[in-house]
Structure formats: structure tokens, C-alpha cells
Amino acid sequence: MQFVVGMDKAFSNKAGIALEKMKKAGVTSVETYVLWKDIEGAGEGRFDFSLFDEDLAALREKSLKWVPFLVIGPWYSTPDWFLGSEKSVPSVCLEHNKQGGNQSIWSPFLKDQVKRTLKAFLDHYKGETEIESVLVGISGDYGEAIQTVYGNWPGEYHGHRGYWAGDPYAVESFRGFLLYHYDSLKNINYSWGTHYSWEEVRPFMPTLSSAPSRKALLDFYQWYKESMTSWADWWLTQLDNWPWDVYLVTGGNDEPEHASSFAEQCRVAANHKRGIRITNEASDYALNFMLTRLVSTASRKYGSYFSTEPASSVNEKGEIGRVYNAYSSGARAFHEYFYNVFQDLEGNEKPNLHSLPSSVLSRKGDEKPVVSVGLVASQNTRILDGSFGEEELNVSKKIRELTDFDLLNEDLLSNGGIDYRFLIFAFPFMAPENILSKLVAWIQGGGTAIIAYPPKNLDGDSSTFKSLLGIEGEVFGVSEVKPLTRLGTQGVTSKAYKVSGDAELHAVMSYKESETKAVVWSRRIEGGNVLAVSSAPSNRIFINALKECLYGSLIGVEPLQKPYEPIPIEGIYPAATEDHLVLYNSTDNQVKIKIKTGEVVLKPNSISIY
Ligand SMILES: [Zn+2]
Question: In terms of C-beta density within 10 A (0-12 exposed, 13-18 middle, 19 or more buried), how is residue 266 classed?
Fold first, then answer.
């Protein structure tokens, strides 16, 4: 695996010892930021790479490679001569109709600048074999494929989390998108329930209360997200003939405000045989897993590659979790900052970490994760129904202690097959009818869906999935346990649910206070199964039912092979790859477990590979 350490540029005259230390620790390359203004700051066409040539010479001397991070578009990357020109088009927020600092991704003038700058870079470094990979920063405050979030050096320009879609070229793009999909203004008005003139059709604050309608709201998000994906696609097209690995940098948490779709960004990267750098990790493994798993899932599905990077500092314990996450997720590269692994900003050494990443990352052969379980999370639900919060994260962590899983959302479910044995619906999920039909077909074809919240269509109607579960009524998925009141294979009745018609339900787990109250039931749906859990996913019943469904004989499907006994253990995480069982003990205690070959001891805060 590529082990990349980030350093400040122009390090060549002061980094001799640091480079030696890194080389010894198995680092393969050093990453530095190459901002547009660093190479063309003196004026249009006056390119100068001397700053970077010196660094490259220093790296060559230590047999280390270089990873330039080329950033064009964000405020801090843009040369003054361009910022002051008529061609500078800063993005504009919808909240205040005010200009920010980063260039609009809809600007018609930016493409020429990107083309010129990339050409100058390639002309200068074309035959360079000491470049390990190139990262590209196409938008955002720092270069991520997202919109403005906080501002880079906050205060230097107007910046905040929100919606950056108010510049004239964004308005033009929005109208073009709608015309493409609806053919006419008349059709747009019909679909939105409005009576707009073309002048009135423009990006609006995308909330349920200020959007013209629910349909208009979803159209806005689709356009906002597709705009960023198209911008990434255009950038990667410019790099098609570059001889090195190229990573498109993205970041954040795939939030609707950011305009990112990690899944779509992976898909276009794969189309160009390129990769994604996901920049968002911190010190909590379970959180890191959730922040990066969409990229790992989509990369495997579409055939791109990826690397991981922290958003800022990471503690020693967190570092172990980061290495485990990259390795067990099948990452091609692992990035860390010098101060996180070798020496903090006060100059204190971190000897415990020097050899940790390379001891795992330098192992021969790429790990290929084998994942049979998918957890479904929804972008539409975050738009229509609120955000993914602490409780959802805790549930995900509990599920992760039980099994490795992939994260799936609408973009992934609509673009390709569903290659999992089990899908978990632990959170509200709202998707277009075509995705719901695809899920039903997957169940009928042999899949097992474990459902705490029946999926809904975009109008909020869950009747398709409720009918699969054999129920009617509206109290499903509430936080309190609402048991069915009679066990059996037929005629189950309940105060909480109305069983639809003569649906045949198999009660498989009951509430401990009463054996006559079922809270988990299953139904055979042609070749597959649904398992309903009528308690909140944060309740122990949900995790118990999940465990029994995956590893037991609860519904008569062939169970997954248990990674070890006992399962689950708090803070211990399993992952299977084609060749290995990869375990992470995130606790401060030694833990004994039984794997296939016998009993093994997992040291505190350690990664074990069998
Ligand atoms: Zn604003």
C-alpha cells in the first residue's frame, strides 16, 4: 500500500532528518499542496515550478516519492491577478445572496484556467517517475469535491455551511437541467404545482418550508449534486492521459448541503480508471468507518480505488483504528500528517507510532474485503426527514461489532446489482419507486431484508413494504416496544399493528416479559425473506434479532460463518477479506476469542491478521 505523509511545501532545506525517519518507517511518499498561485502567481502564463523542483530533488535523494495535491478553484489557491479579473466568478450563497471566495463550479471561465494550468504541470513533469500519484482539488474551501462549508482562514471571505448556488451561471445551469428533464416550462409548473415564468425559475432555499413543492425540492438536490459530479467528471477527463495514479479529493460526510455524492464521484472516477481520496477521519474508529465506508463500497462496486486522510489531528489510539480501517476496507493508499505519526507540533516524538502503519500497510498483496451485509442509509431521508445523528451512529457501531458491512444509498442501489445476502434497514429510508421495486425483486430472488423501518416512496408511502411484512397501520419503528399479542403462524393480531388480510406471519422472537408477545417476525417472500423487528434499532432486541438472523437459524436461511466466538464483543471489530480474517481490538484490555484455528489473544489496541 502507498503510505503517504503530508508536509508543508518548501521543506527541502529543513527536512533531512524527518525524511530519513519516514523512509525508515516505511513511508513511500510525501504529499505537498501545489496551489494554482504557487506556480502561476507572477501573472498569466508565467509558470514557475522551482519551489517544487527543490523538494522533489530532496525526496529523490532519500528514495521517497512525491504526491502533489493540485488545487485550482478554491479561494486560497487562486492567484491575485485572476481574483481581480473580470473572469473571476465567486460562488454565491442562497442564504444571503452574497459572494463567497471560492470560484463557482458553473463559471464558464474557470475551465480554460484549469486546462492551462494542468497542461503546464504535465509539460514540466511528464517524464517524472518519482511522482507516486497526483491528487486534484477541484472545489470547496480546501479543494474537496464539495461546496463551501466554513471558509478557508475563516473571515477572509464570506463562508458558511449552506447552499452555494446563487451566481448567474448556477441559475442558468439549474434552468438547463429542468428543461432537459421536463422539456418545457409548462411541464415544470405542472410537476411543481407552480405558475412560474422562466424568470422566476431559479435555485431556492431547499427546505420543505421554502421550496415551491416537495418535487421541486428533490429536483434542486438532484441538480446540485449532479453539478458537482459533472464538474469532477470534466476534471478527470482533462487528466485521462496523465501517467500517474490520480485521486479526486473529496471530504465531509456526504451531506446534501455539500453537493457531494461519494458514490457518484467513485463511479465517474472508475469510468476514468482513477481513484478517490476521502478526507474526513478523526480518532474514533466507528465514526471513521461510517465516514469512509460509502467510498470503500462504491470503489469496490465500480472499480475505482481510494485512499483515506484525516481532517485534522488524530490521537495514538485513533491512529491504530485508522490503519485498521484503511487496511480492512481495501484502500490503495493511507495518508497521515507528519505531526500525527512522527512528531507533534511541540516537537515531541511519537515512537509508538513510527512502525505501526508500515507493519500493517507494507504487507504483501492487496486485501479484498468480502462483505455479505449491506446497511441502507438514505440521502433523500436526510433531505426530507432530518439528519443522521448520534443515535444512528451508535446503532451502526453496534452492528459493526457484529459484522463488517457495506453502506448503501439511493445512488448505489439504482446504479447496479445488489450483491449482498442481507440488507439492513435500521434507519428511515425513502426512495423512488424504481429503487423500491429493485429491492423487492432482490428479496424475491433470495435476499433477506432485516427491517426496523419499512422503506417508503418519496411521497412517504410505505405500503409496498408493509404489505411484504404483512401489516397495516402506522406505529412501526417507534422507540417503545409494541408487541404483537398472539404467537403463531397465522392470525396474529395486535394492539399496535393490524395484520393485513390473511397474511401468514412467523413470530420468531418474543418480548422477554411475555412469551405470548412477538416483536420479531418473518415472512417468506418467494425465494427470499423479510424479518421485521418492531422495536427501535437502539433497543437490544434489534441487535439480538440481527445476530440470530445473521449467525443463527432464526428464519431458516444459511447463516454467515461466525468470525469468532463469542460474538459480538464491545469494541472488537471483525472484517473478512479474500485471504484473511482481520481483527481490531479497540479496547484497553486483552481479549481472548475462539477463531477457526483455535483460541487467540487480542492485545489491547491492536490489529491482528489471521
Ligand atoms: Zn451567506
Answer: buried
Q: Name the region of 61 (left: φ>0; alpha: ψ -120 to 50; beta: rest).
A: alpha
Reading phi first (left if > 0) and then psi (alpha if -120 to 50, else beta), residue 323 is in: alpha
- Structure pTM? 0.94
Residue 99 Cα, ligand 1 centroid: separation in angstroms? Answer: 7
236 in Cβ contact with 274 (< 8 Å): yes
Ligand 1 centroid to 93 CA: how many Å? 5
State the cell numbers at 211: 421550496
- Residue owning grid cell 477541484: 138
Block residue for cell numbers 407552480 = 194
Q: Whole-angstrom Cα distance, residue 166 to residue 159?
A: 14
Cα–ligand 1 centroid distance for 209 (angstroms): 19
Peptide bond into 566 cis (omega under 30): yes
Distance 106 CA to ligand 1 centre (A): 18
- Cα(98) to centroid of ligand 1, in Å? 5
C-alpha 415/C-alpha 412 separation (Å) is 5
50-59: burial string, b at 16+ Cβ within 10 Å, e else? eebeebbebb
C-alpha 94 – ligand 1 centre gap (Å): 7
Read off the pLDDT of residues 508-559 as tens digits, 9 standing for 90 and up.
776 554 455 567 888 899 999 999 887 778 888 889 889 999 999 888 889 9
Continuous segment of H or E residues that includes residue 101:
strand 99-103
Q: How far apart are CA 56 and CA 12, in angstroms?
A: 8
Q: Domains along the chain? A: 2-361 (3.20.20.80), 373-551 (3.40.50.880), 572-609 (no CATH)
Q: What is the pLDDT of residues 140-164, one digit of tens each?
A: 999 999 999 988 877 789 999 999 9
What is the 205 CA–ligand 1 centroid distance (Å)?
A: 12
Q: Locate cell 408487541: which residue?
A: 483
How far, in Å, is the centroid of ligand 1 from the Cα of 141? 14
